[in-house]
Amino acid sequence: MTTTSLLPVVDVTACCSPLTRRTLPAESAENLARLLKALADPTRLRLISIVAASERQEACACDLTAPVGLSQPTVSHHLKVLTDAGFLSRTQRGTWAYFALVPGALDSVARLLVSA
Q1: Residue 91 near residue 97 (C-beta atoms within 8 A)
Q2: What is the pLDDT confidence band of residue 20, given thresholds at 50, 70 and 90?
Q3: DSSP letters of 38-94?
Q4: CA nearest 82: which of 17, 115, 32, 34?
Q5: What does DSSP assign to residue 36?
Q6: HSE-CB of 40 using CA atoms within 13 angstroms
Q7: What span, in angstroms and rounded, lies between the C-alpha atoms of 32 and 52?
Q8: Main-chain dihedrals φ then ψ at residue 79, nearest 5 degrees
Q9: How confident is the model at residue 76 (pLDDT cuts 50, 70, 90)?
Q10: pLDDT tier at 21 (50, 70, 90 boundaries)?
């Protein structure tokens, strides 16, 4: 089993309060915008929900094309965007790639948007 080396998830909450409490510094705004852009696609949101709802919160790429009704190259592109943004991790098992939700990745974005 080979695990792809990923860049650490940028936790923009480490330096910033929720948007409603303080002005967001430029660098944090850029990081948050990059993360939100990765999420701002209906197919990517569906892929995250499918992976999260799968057994052990992990899904094979081979099982993700049919539910979203797109070709394998298109689904692979969306999975790469989500992986590069730090929302999904990728593990290679033989010829198949498996994707899992990175623990806490969605939470860090949500905390910035909520003022509670």
Answers
A1: yes
A2: low
A3: HH-SHHHHHHHHHHHHSGGGEEEGGGTHHHHT--HHHHHHHHHHHHHTTSEEEEEET
A4: 34
A5: H
A6: 6
A7: 22
A8: -65, -35
A9: very high
A10: low
